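Sync notes, pocket subgroup
Present: LS, DG
LS reminded everyone that the earlier model was apo-only. Rerun requested with zinc ion included. Inputs:
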Amino acid sequence: MASGTALLYDEEMTRYKLLWVDPACKIEVPERLTVSWEALHNAGLSGRCIPLPVRQATEEEILLAHSQEYLEAVKKTPDMSLEELMTFTQQYGDVYFHPNIYHCAKLAVGASLQLVDAVMTGKVRNGLALVRPPGHHSQRSEASGFCVFNNVAIAALYAKKHFKIQRVLIVDWDIHHGQGLQYCFEEDPQVLYFSWHRYEHQRFWPNLRESDFDSVGKGMGAGFNINLPWNKARLMAPYFRGLLEHCDQKCLTWLLASLQVGMDSSDYLSVFFHVLLPVAYEFNPELILVSAGFDSAVGDPEGHMCATPEIFGHLTHLLMSLAGGRLCAVLEGGYNLTSLAQSVCQTVQTLLGDPPSRISGLSSPCESALESIQSVRAAHQQYWVCFKNADVSLWPDPGTKCSRLEGDTQAEEALKEGEMREIVWPEPPSRLAPPIRTGVTLPAGLEDDVLTSCFRVTGIPLTPNQVAKELWHPAVPELKDEKVLQSLGDILSLLKEIEKKEVRNGLAVVPNVSLAATFGVQHALTSLTDRVLLVFLGNEAPVELQEDGRVMLIQLCSTEPVETKSKFYVPICLKKSSSDVAGFLHAVLSLLLPLAYGYDPGMILAVMADCSLVGAVAWAQLIGLLQSFAQGHTLALIQGAEKEIIRVTAASLLGEPASTLGPLGPPLSENVKAVEKERQRLQTHWGLLQTTGEDHPRTR
Ligand code: Q9C
Ligand code: ZN
């Protein structure tokens, strides 16, 4: 299995800049690359990456996405005078040329192709190309939005051509719509393009009608273009100015901070759970390209969003379970140098396999984000079975909202006033990872390649007395069983290693999984954390857990569970779940992940009590996804000793990408119903479960 993270960078790409006055272009500066590079160096991250040489793209490669005429025109720019460059620039929008930009643009494409080569040949698992100029706005015969050649478009076409792959997913998390990418692939069913972007009903650049959610692709490519517009910012317009006038300086600062004009981490994650990830799993990509623009992070002068840099660690992690982990990130925008550098570091650290930071205080997506989510799910309902049963009663008519609203001008002025104020946010905490990734305690005779990379932990068998002291319910018959007492001693040692920060996560194969789970939860609450998430696959979960919110139990079972009103107990009854992989995945993406992000546990227990409930591959995917939480502190407990399950669990805990789930059919409708029932029940408590606007109370 491929391992390692490639980093592509060449100082040469800092050697062009804006040579005249243009307010629209002054933010695209060479320092964008140098600060990113230095931040990676200072955080000790670049040293852990595999450096790959950057090369120039060939003309043939550039022609994969661009016209001969356009290439010939750009080719002449190195010899142009300043005046000629200015004139040449004027035919395009929001872009500038420089005598050295053609050279840099060839390096930016070449770096992206080198990365694709390394990932597709298995030389590395994933990587990042730090490049300038960016690419996603550039079109067949047109430069646009600081972009000269479309790096990611060429990378996708190159991957299709040279590696004969049939499904490439492009995730464009830059805050602008990559219209160049959309135009390039809108008729191509082999390239799924997803973009979210600041839109404001067409009032934000590039102001295109076709950036709205109803542009779903054309012809054979219908369904393979997904636009999620952000429309929030100007809603306060009529009130904003008046408020500002009656404020003193301090009150003004507070007001601007609290009147979020941009989307935040809750909005971004909701879109991943309820739009991108379901489609991405159904699409089953062989390669993921990320148009990694960081102007979608807090502090950016273009995006004005509120998501902190940590979110990119999570977005990256959520994608790493797909395509066998083959992920190539290519820099696009990002204009606040501090925010950009932090976001780049978060992305690379996740690519390297370090656990993402915990994110606390996640709430509901805002009303406008919910409207966008609902709209895009409705628009794509006919193309993706994952949306078949989605509740999409409301589908706002696009195109009716793009006229200027009353109060727009005032709001724009007010926003400008806000823009001049410096936005501050806390520096992301350092993501220290314990020296040992995975500790295991196993019965004798279980040897395997994967398991040899794990750290063996053996404990001293507990006495029945000790067990009684640790447990809430001491009257357990198995107490005298030596094997049980040994396994509890093993788990105790494992948890102690985690507590000492020597070991990140663990796997224990145990004879009595219910008892082990109760013991593990109880001990974790005593010594490790105040919130444990217990994910239990089996019919007999230890449900007699405290009701004070210190434990959240998500149970996947095959028999009808007891009715519950608790917001910390989530039973999901799935029929034939081992064959209904799509139903299982639906439960994970639309219920389990949002709940876990909302709960923000300090420790995860993932318990496999009944191997017949879910196949090894689906389980391995779940274990991978769960490592988004609790700084990677996952303890997996498995009943019995089915070798394949043990092997894939250890591999996932070690950070190896799980095998793909393969093409997914439609989920069983009764399973979708079971999941939906729980989602409906819980969505007022856990806002990240929401997928529709209006009829549900806002919690923000
Ligand atoms: N304030 C990239 O992020 N200027 N390009 C818009 C409206 C164009 C952004 C002006 C921004 C282009 C790669
Ligand atoms: Zn951008």
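DG: Confidence is low (pLDDT under 50) at residues 696-700.
LS: The longest helix spans residues 101-120.
Action: DG to write up.
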